[in-house]
Structures are given as C-alpha cells and as structure tokens.
C-alpha cells in the first residue's frame, strides 16, 4: 500500500537530518525534527516535498497495477467459483463466441446493445453431491425484470447452457439451472408504538404507509443471491423500522418452485434452491399488529 506524501517526506528528512555532514553544515539540533528547523517554504522543504510527491505517485501506480493484475488473475483463472460466476454474467444472448475463445466480438455494437444482450444479472456457482457421493457444479442464474429477479425461459437457458459448455473446464460436470424464486410464507407479530404507527403499519405523520410490510418484503428481495436467510437477521432489520417496539416470527416456511412440501425455517437459516425468495400470494405474509403498552 502506498505511503502518504507526508510519510515519505518524513522518512527522507529523518535520514537527512541524521547525516553528520548535514548536521555540521546546517548546525542542526539533533533533538529537533526537520520541520522544527526548516520553514515549510524553505528551498530544502520544497525539494523534499517534490521528491516525496514523485515517490508517492510511483507507489500509487504500483498499487494500481498490482490490483489490476490481481483482478485479472481472479477473473481469468479457471476452476474457481468466481470464474464461473463472472463468465455467466458475461453471457450475451443471441450472439456466438469467437471460435476457440471465451470472448465475444463486440465490434460494431453499442454499449446499450451489449448490456441488453447480457441477460444474466445474478449467478452463483455451488458444489453439489449426487446420491452416490460424486460431486458436480451447479450454476444458478437469474435475469431481472425491473426490480425483481426472474428465471430464464427455456430458450434462454438452453442458449446459456450451450455457452457454458463451450467455455467450461474439460471434465467438469456442470449443470446450469434457472428456477423461479422459492416461495416464502411468514406470519409476524409486531408490537408498535401507537404514537408513531397505526394498526396497519402506517406512519401517523403521513410520511409512509405500510412501512413494516414494505421493510419485511424489501429485506427478502434485497437478500444476496443464493445467500443465507436467517430469521434473527430479518427480525433485527425490522426492529429498526420507526415505530416498531418489538417483533417476532411465528411462522416461516419455504418451498422451491418444483417442490410440493413446505419446509420450516430453523434458527440455522436456509439457502433458497433457486437463489432467491419471493412472497407470491397475499396470505404468504401475515402481520398481526399489537399496540405496545408504554405504561
């Protein structure tokens, strides 16, 4: 990490002041620092600043170069989950790769055309195991429609799978999936301050309506793709909502798109099968509001 200009200048001036020849020539006091014996506008101080600034600029360039090389290495180094995720997001729907490469020929395309073709906005590569114990990689992906994530349709997923099959490591069992959000259903009990909220979760000052329900839904929607959902973290977030005095969850269940059985969310949390959750029906989120007794 690059030192500051002051740190570099202090190092140089300390060595300079320690030189016996310089001490004799300038009649320096060894008990004082360079700054205590030379004005900031002295020619000596100015020259040291110029050299220190040049050294700082060089160290900064070295840092930038090192960071660029590390990023390039991480992005191009195969056999890592990050490599697969980056390649998934680089997929361009409707375009083919340059032969024998993992890159597209984007010459003649506008930035807008390139971004529109990159339909995969979320990706997570995870290691899975078959019933016989053998491992494989599962690449979960999703696109977006506005603020919500959505699964790739059959044609899009087929094109994406063909793209990954062309660039993946030889011999790797890679399975590309894109499913609709796992269904999540919850019942909350919320104790609210009747001086701030009404019985429907609206702020009495008129600055917000359904603020509790909105916060509950936003937390689920903004959860990291394929991230761990924990009840305690969700409760902590809702307790920060203005007017909420206390809250707890009495029901929390999840079900994947292709599943038929609801599973209760335990204290250890759960990771969605598709990579993300969604409240589908109105009764998937039930909130019981109870005024908090301030006495």
Helix content: 25-40%
How does the overall form come out from the CA principal axes?
flat
Query: Proportion of β residues?
Result: 15-25%
Tally of individual helices? 9
Cα Rg: 30 Å
Low-confidence stretches: none
Head-to-tail CA distance between termini:
56 Å
What string gives the helices and strands in order? HHHHHHEEEHEEHEHEEEEE
Structural class: alpha/beta
Number of domains: 3
Beta strands, count: 11
What is the mean pLDDT? 92
The main pleated sheet reads as: 5 strands, mixed
Q: If you had to describe this structure to a student in words, what would you say it looks like?
A:
- The chain is flat, with a radius of gyration of 30 Å.
- It has helices spanning 5-18, 20-26, 34-37, 43-76, 81-89, 111-117, 154-167, 211-221, 231-238, and strands at residues 122-129, 135-145, 148-150, 174-177, 182-192, 228-229, 244-255, 263-264, 270-271, 277-278, 285-291.
- The chain is 37% helix and 22% strand.
- Strand 2 and strand 3 form a beta hairpin.
- It has nine helices and eleven strands.
- The chain folds into three domains: 5-75; 81-177, no CATH class; 182-291, no CATH class.
- With 295 residues, it is of the alpha/beta class.
Question: How does the SSE layout of this entry go?
Answer:
Layout: H1 5-18, H2 20-26, H3 34-37, H4 43-76, H5 81-89, H6 111-117, E1 122-129, E2 135-145, E3 148-150, H7 154-167, E4 174-177, E5 182-192, H8 211-221, E6 228-229, H9 231-238, E7 244-255, E8 263-264, E9 270-271, E10 277-278, E11 285-291
Parallel strand pairs: 2-4, 5-10, 5-11
Antiparallel strand pairs: 1-2, 2-3, 5-7, 6-9, 7-8
Helix pairs in contact: 1-4
């Amino acid at each position: 990490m690059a030192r500051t200009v002051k740190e570099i200048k202090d190092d140089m001036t300390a060595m300079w002041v320690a030189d016996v020849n310089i001490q004799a020539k300038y009649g320096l006091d060894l008990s004082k620092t360079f700054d205590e014996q030379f004005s900031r506008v002295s020619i000596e101080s100015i020259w040291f600043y110029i050299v220190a600034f040049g050294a700082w600029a060089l160290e900064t360039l070295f840092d930038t170069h090192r960071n660029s090389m590390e990023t390039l290495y991480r992005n191009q180094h195969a056999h890592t989950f990050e490599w697969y995720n980056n390649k998934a997001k680089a997929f361009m729907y409707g375009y083919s790769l340059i032969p024998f490469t993992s890159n597209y020929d984007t010459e003649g395309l506008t930035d807008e055309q390139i971004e529109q073709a990159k339909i995969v906005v979320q990706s997570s590569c995870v290691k899975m195991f078959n019933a016989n114990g053998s491992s494989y990689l599962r690449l979960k992906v999703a696109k977006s429609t506005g603020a919500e994530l959505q699964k790739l349709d059959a044609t899009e997923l087929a094109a994406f799978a063909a793209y990954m099959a062309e660039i993946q490591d030889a011999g790797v069992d890679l399975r590309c999936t894109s499913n609709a959000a796992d269904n999540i259903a919850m019942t909350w009990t919320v104790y609210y301050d009747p001086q701030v909220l009404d019985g429907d979760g609206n702020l009495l000052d008129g600055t917000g309506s359904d603020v509790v329900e909105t916060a509950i839904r936003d937390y689920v929607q903004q959860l990291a793709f394929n991230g761990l959902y924990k009840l305690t973290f969700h409760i902590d977030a809702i307790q920060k909502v203005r007017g909420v005095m206390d809250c707890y969850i009495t029901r929390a269940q999840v079900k994947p798109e292709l599943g038929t059985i609801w599973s209760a969310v335990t204290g250890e949390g759960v990771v969605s099968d598709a990579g993300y959750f969604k409240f589908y029906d109105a009764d998937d989120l039930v909130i019981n509001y109870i005024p908090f007794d301030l006495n």
